C-alpha cells in the first residue's frame, strides 16, 4: 500500500510546519539529527526543553517556536516573560546558539524562514548527533616520573580499564612528546597531533618522522594542508578553522601538546568534533592559568561515549531484545519528513487489541519487574496504565501534564518499588533515567533515531544486581519509507533470536549466539517463555541510513555546472533516473543518486563537476572569460567586490546603488549607458528595477554555477563559503582587472 502524507490542512501545528520547512531546505535525510523537545537544565538546575535541537561542527543550536504573544511582554504575564528570558540566557550561557520564530511566521512567511535557516546554517550543513545524554569518557592524570617503558605500560593499562582520555604531566624536556608518539605507534591508529605554536608543530612533525618512520607524516599549518597522511601535525588554530576538511571519525588517536595553553572553547570545538578512540593531553601542569582543572574540561567537552563503547567499558548494561508482532498496519499513516502525523498515529495505535497485547506481554514475560512503557500520547499512557491496574499491576501514567509534586512522587514510588510499571508519554523531557529499570516496552513507533536512543538510554544505567536491560519492541506492519526504528534496525542486527543480546561485550554476544545455534537458552533467559530455536532474518532497509551515503538532488545541483531547472526537467523527462526516490510529504518526493553518478552525468551532458577544491578556480576562470552580450557581469562583480565584507556578503541595496552609479556616470560623461533596450538608456527606472535586472541577468548565471547565493529576506548576496575561504587579496585584485579588461573590450575606447 502506498505511503500517505500529512497535508498542511490536517497537520498545521507549528511543530509539524517547522519539520516540513527543515526538510524542504536541507533534505529529509538530515532529519535524523534533529532532536524534538530536547531536555536541558537551566542555570538554577530546573528541567526545561528545547523545541528543536541540532549540532553542527560549531556546536549546539536551539530552535524555539512560540506563539506571537510569548514574544511580547505586553501580552503575557511578567513572570512568564522573565522565565522565557531565563531559559534563553541559560542556553546561551551553556554555549548554545538560539534562533526563534513565531508560529505565525512559519505559516505566513515560510520562504523567509527557509531563507533564514540557510543564512544561519549554510546551504549544506554537516550535522551530528548530540551525545549529551551519553556517559562522559573516563580519564586519568599521571605524572611522568617513571621510565619510558613504565609510562607506556601505564597508558596501555588505562585503556584496558576503560579510560579513553589521559593527561600526562611532566616538565619541559621530560620526554612527554616521545611518550605520546610511541603510544600512538603502539595503538597503530591514524593520529592527529596538535600544538598551539608553529615551533611545537614542526617539532612534533620531526619527532614523528624519527620515531614512527613506517607511516607518512604531514603538516597542517599556514599554507601547508596535508590531509591524506597517516599522521597529521597541525596547529590548533588551523584545524579549528578548517574542520570541514576532515571527517569526524578519520583519526583514532589525538595528541594535544602543551594543552594547558588552549582555551576551553578551542577544546570544545576539537574534542567534540573528532571521535577518536583515545585522546592524550601533554602538559606541564594539570591546571590552566585560570585555575580550571584540565581533565574536567577534557571530559566535559569531549564527545561522549557511544552506546556500544559505554557497554564495553561497563558504564552501561548490555541489552537483550524480544520482538512482539502486532496486527496494526501503519502503512497508510501519513508522514511529514521524518515524523509520523500524530493524529494518524494515535488513531492507529490507540486500539484495545494493541493496548491489551502490551499488558499481556508484561504478564507473560516480565511480571513484577520494574518496567517503563513508552506511549504515543498522554491519552495512550492513561489508557495503558488503566489496563495494567485492572490486572492488579501497580502502574501509573506520567507526562508533562502531571503536576510537578505528583510527578516527583510517582517517580519516587517507582524507584522505591511501590510502582511496578510507568506508562510514559514525554518522560524524556524530565532528563530522567532509572538505574532500577529492568525492562523497556517500545510501544511508541518512531521514525526518529534520536528519540529511540533517548528512550533506550533511560533504562541502561547500571545498578547492583542488574545484569542486562530487556527491551520489547512492539513491531507494527509498515512500508519501507515509514518503518519505525527498533533495536535490530538501529544497530544493524539482521539475525533475530528471542531475547538475544543486541548490545554487549563482543565475546558475550558471540557466546550468546553460540548457545542459540546449539538450541540452548542463555542462562539469563531460562525463566522466559521463549524457544531457543526460533529464528528470523529481519529486513534492515532504512532509507535514512542509505541516503547518508548518497547525493540528494539538492546536493547534485550544487555539485554540477547545470541549472536546477535543467536537472528538474531532465528528471521529469526521464533523461536522468534517480537511484532512490523518497516520498516525504503529500506533494514532495526527494530524489537521491549514488556518488559515482556525478562524473557520469557530467560526461553525458557536458557539465563540469564542482568541488571544494576547484570551485574558486572555476569562479576565477568564469570571471576571466567574461562571455557577455551586455556589460552587466563585470559591472556587477566590481559592485559586489566593492561592498563585500570578510564573510563574503554584500547588501544588495549597496550593490544596486554601485551598479547604477556606473551607468549614470557614463551618461553624465556623454557616453551611451548600454544598448537602447537597457533601462539606463530609457531612464525613469527605480532601485527596484535595477535590483530585478541584477538578479535576472548577471547574478543568475553565478547562482546557477553555485558561486553566489541570494538571501532574499536578509537582503544580501553571498559568495560561496568555499570560495571565500580560499580567496586572497591578490585574487580580488585579479578579479577587478578582469572586469576592467572586459569593460574596455565591450565599450572600446568610449
UniProtKB/TrEMBL annotation:
PROSITE patterns, sorted: HELICASE_ATP_BIND_1, HELICASE_CTER
Family matches, as InterPro entries: Helicase/UvrB_N (IPR006935), Helicase_ATP-bd (IPR014001), Helicase_C-like (IPR001650), Helicase_Restrict-Modif_Enz (IPR050742), P-loop_NTPase (IPR027417)
Keyword RNA-binding: no
Organism, scientific name: Butyricicoccus porcorum
GO cellular component labels: cytosol
Pfam family membership, one: Helicase_C
GO terms, molecular function: ATP binding; DNA binding; helicase activity; hydrolase activity
Domain called Helicase C-terminal: residue spans: 358-504
Taxonomic lineage from the root: Bacteria, Bacillati, Bacillota, Clostridia, Eubacteriales
CDD domains hit by this protein: SF2_C_EcoAI-like (cd18799)
Keyword Membrane assigned: no
Domain Helicase ATP-binding: 157-304
Protein name: DEAD/DEAH box helicase
This protein's UniProt keywords: ATP-binding, Helicase, Hydrolase, Nucleotide-binding
